[in-house]
Each structure stands twice: as C-alpha cells, then as structure tokens.
Amino acid sequence: MSRDDVRKKIEVEDLRLAYGSQEIIHSISFDVRENEILGIIGPAQSGKTSLLRCLNRTIDFCARARVSGSVRVDGEDVRQMKDVFALRRKIGMVAPLPVGLPLSIYDNVAFAPRSAGLTRKVELNAIVERCLRQAALWDEVKDRLDSLGTALSGGQQQRLTIARALSHQPEVLCLDEFSIAIDPVTTMRIEDVLKTLRREITIILVTNLNQQARRLADRTMFLWGGRIVEIDTTEVVFSDNPANPQTYDYVRGVFG
Amino acid sequence: MKKRLEAMNRPSRPRWAVLGEKMLEGVIRLCGISAIVFVAAILLFVFREAAPILFGDRFHLKQFLLSVEWYPTSVSNVRYGTFALTVGSVSVTALAMVIAVPFGLGAAIFVSEFCGRRMRETLKIVIELLSAIPSVVWGFIGLTVMSKLIVAYTAAPVGVNILNGGVILALMSVPIIVSIGEDALKAVPDSYREAGLALGATRWQLVYRVLLPAAKNGLLAAVLLGVGRAVGETMAVLMATGHAVHIPHGILDSVRTLTANIAAELGEAPVGSDHYRVLFLTGLLLFGITFAVNLTAELVVRGIRRK
Ligand SMILES: Nc1ncnc2c1ncn2[C@@H]1O[C@H](COP(=O)(O)OP(=O)(O)OP(=O)(O)O)[C@@H](O)[C@H]1O
Ligand SMILES: [Mg+2]
Known about the structure:
The structure holds 2 protein chains of 2 kinds. By secondary structure, chain A is of the alpha/beta class. Chain A has helices at residues 48-55, 84-90, 105-115, 121-134, 138-141, 154-166, 184-197, 210-216, 234-237, 245-251, and strands spanning 8-19, 22-33, 37-41, 65-73, 76-77, 91-94, 172-176, 202-206, 219-224, 227-233. In chain A, a hairpin with a 2-residue loop joins strand 9 and strand 10. In chain B, strand 1 and strand 2 form a beta hairpin.
C-alpha cells in the first residue's frame, strides 16, 4: 500500500483548546489513518484526554472550553455536524476510570444500540454477547446479566465500558488509559482483542505505558505540554534515533 | 524494648480532646433519640385522649371507620362515622397528586436538565416564593378566585369542592416536589451524564434511560413529601372544599376532609366529651393513613432497589 491510497479517517488541523483563559492544546495538526492503531503517549497533563474529548465533541459539556481549528471525521467538520449523536456513536470512547451506568450489565451494553433505535430482542442479545466476549468479560458475567453494572469489580467495570464502547460498532475507538484498573493478564487479553480489531476499525490508544503503545500501535504520537513533539511509525519513535531527542528520552524514561 | 513499643501505641491526643469527642457523640445521640421520643410522646398524648372512647362500650370501631353518618352534636341520634371524611381526604389528595406529580416532576427535570443557568436561578426563586405562601392565603385564593372560576366554567352549583381543593393542594405540593426532585437529579453524578451522552444518547434518552433510574429513590421521596403535604394540609382544604359530609359522586361535589373536620370542630367540642375524644381518634386515623402511605413507599423503594 502506498502512502497515497491510505484513507484519512480523522484530520486535525490547527486545533487549539483552552479552558477559560488557559490554553491547553496549542495548535496541533495530525491525521489518523483508516484502520490503523495510533498510539498517543505523553506525560500527565499534556492534554491527551482533552484531545480525545475534542474528537467526539464531549468537550461540549465543559462550558469553559474554547475550541478553534478543525477536526474532520470522514472529511466532515465535527463542529458543523447537525447530528452530534451519530458522531458520538461513530466514535467509541473508553474513559480511564470506568463509569458503569446505574443499570444492569445487559442494559449498559444495550444502551447505545437502543439509543440508536434498535429494539429487537434477538439483535440486542447478539450484540450484548458479542461485545462482552470482545471485552473478555462474557465468561465472568454471562450468568448475571441482570445484576447491576456498578456492582462489578473495578477491572470488570472497565471491561464493561469497553464492551459498551464497542456496542454501537464504532468506526473509531478511543481508549484513554484503559488498563489503569485492569490486571496484566486481562490487559493482555484486551490487547489481543485490539489486535484483531486493527484491520476493521480505527483505534486511538492513549496510554501511559510506553510499552503498550510499542506493542500495539502502527504509529505513535508523542504529545507534550499540548504540542506534538513527534508523530511517526512506532518503530521510528521507539528507535535509537527518533527525529526529536526528547522523544528518545521520554520513551526510555529518562525524561526530566 | 517493650516499654518503647507501649509508648508508641499510647494515644498521643490530649485527654480533653478525647473527652470532648465522647461528649459530642453523646449530644448527637441525644438529638437522634429525642426525635423518636417526641414522636412517641405526641402519639401517646393523642392516644390517651382518645382511649376512653375507643375502649368504651358505646363505641363501635366498624361504625367509626365505615359509616358515613357523622352527627356529633345531634341530640337524639349521635353518630360518629368517618368514612365520608376519609373519602374526602383521599379524593382531594388523589386529585392533587394527579395534577402535581406530572407537573412537579416535569418541572424538576426541566429545571435540572434542560434550562440555562439564568432561567434556573429565576425559576428556583419563584418556586421558593410559591412554597412560602401561607396555607390560609391559599385557602383564601380557593374561596374567592378559584371558586368563581369553577362556577363560571363548569356546571357546578358551588365553587368550593374537590376540584377546587385538589387544585389548591396541587399548587401547594408542586414546589416541594420540584425542589426535592431537582436535588435528587442534581445528585446524579455528572459522569453518568457524560457517559450516556458519549454513547450517543439524546438528552431525552439520557433523562429516561439514565437519570430517572439513577434518581428514582429521591424522586419517589419527592412525590411522597408532596403527598404528605397534601394529606396533612388543613386550612386551605377547610376553606376550599365546601365542608359537606357526604360521599362525593364527582370532582364537582363538595366534601369535608379528616383534617378540616378536626380543625373546625375541636374548638367547640367540650373537653373530655365523647365528641372531643372521637376527634382525637380521627387524628389517630389520619396518622395511620400517612403511616401506611410512607410504609408502602418505603417497601416500593426497597423493591426497586433489590431489582
Ligand atoms: N474540565 C476542565 N476544566 C479546566 N481545566 C481542565 C479540564 N480538564 C482538563 N483540564 C486541564 O487541562 C490540562 C490537560 O488535562 P488532560 O486531562 O487533557 O491531560 P492528560 O494528558 O489526559 O493527563 P493524564 O495523563 O494525567 O490523564 C490539565 O492541566 C488540566 O488541569
Ligand atoms: Mg488523561
């Protein structure tokens, strides 16, 4: 595949984000290609979560946030979109701390399909099972789908939110430090799932674990203080001579 | 070595702090217990006043509860049947709730989820004002304004009836339902809202799929406090419902409620007379009704919770 026939799924151009008068993201531009895994690494406070929130416009909930520049998904500017609900179903989002809705496990996963208008029980059942399997949770909860999602353990709840994010068959899946509350074994299982999804959907993986980006990402972006220090193929970013020496230091943990 | 360990384990806080904490705990416990004591004392007092007739041989409980004949001051044919009064209370309250619950909960949802900040502040002040109006003023409005409207727009011969009392009571309980309901909705963490919206739910879907289930206990409490207000209200219904003791056939009939009856007659009943004691017994009946309402609600809430 040559460079030119790679379709761009998301194009970010000159994006700036400020909370009140404090600018957090300073004019960044990059693309996310269709069906790739883009890793985003960077120290705390560098604006990774804020960036994701600009993509599916959940930033709208924050009254103080000011966004400028453009984010285009499939060529369409998200801020001009009429149906923001469809945008949010197109972009699945998994937050770092699990937010189980106060509903049953089943209803948690069926929430998005139902919101989109799906009511047939058979289809919903199929979706719930598929997503819970993909999130490596099915075996643990298949006998108690009716119990409250909030009653699960932290790691299980996190996997529930992953299942939920997959339930509306998103074209882009954003994971924000998904493995914070999950043990290494389960993390590996979910990483395997992500690998199988790699050629079907586009994945943006924000992670504090550099090695996770190295294992999974096709390309990796190093974000620092609201600026892109480097974005390149994962091999280059983690190689001995990335374009920027700061990248070299950060991925080796000698960042000060 | 052992000595040193002991020294380390010894509480380092000064004795007065420990003692102070104990005392504070005692005071708080006393406050908690006193609430129970007061309720029990009130109940006991009412019961003591009612007991002689309750256990006397001239009294029939079945007649008291189920007869519609209330002739407390008749010379030859004294009757103490409260059924019509109970029906009066229940019908006025039911009508009030039919009006107040949808309006109150709707307004709570609107105030908490749909309106802007400016609007919210304004509405909250107005609602607060509404709940500060004394009940006798409401009764006055019922007697003068509402009753004229009812006579003008319906076929009712008199304007003071169930409809009038129900509307007045609804207006009185809506502010409670709105403010408690809004608190219940506000208590739902914002992360639920974000999670729901991030899954592509519209605001309405968010309200009935996430917020209502999450806030159901609080909302039920709001409704119940509204019911409690309506059942216990006296002055306004006394003035607005017409004070006629009989079983109503429609919402345009006049009725008398348990509360209004006590308020109107207790002053004229000689202390210690049968009439006086029966009125206290009516108070107990009222207490029983509110208790039953609260208990049902409690059970409903638990049922919902277990699910
Ligand atoms: N809702 C908000 N209001 C005001 N400031 C915010 C808000 N959310 C984030 N910020 C600020 O924006 C900056 C970037 O936050 P962000 O959560 O995007 O960082 P992050 O890279 O995701 O960090 P971490 O790795 O710790 O998750 C921080 O300084 C934070 O204080
Ligand atoms: Mg973050």
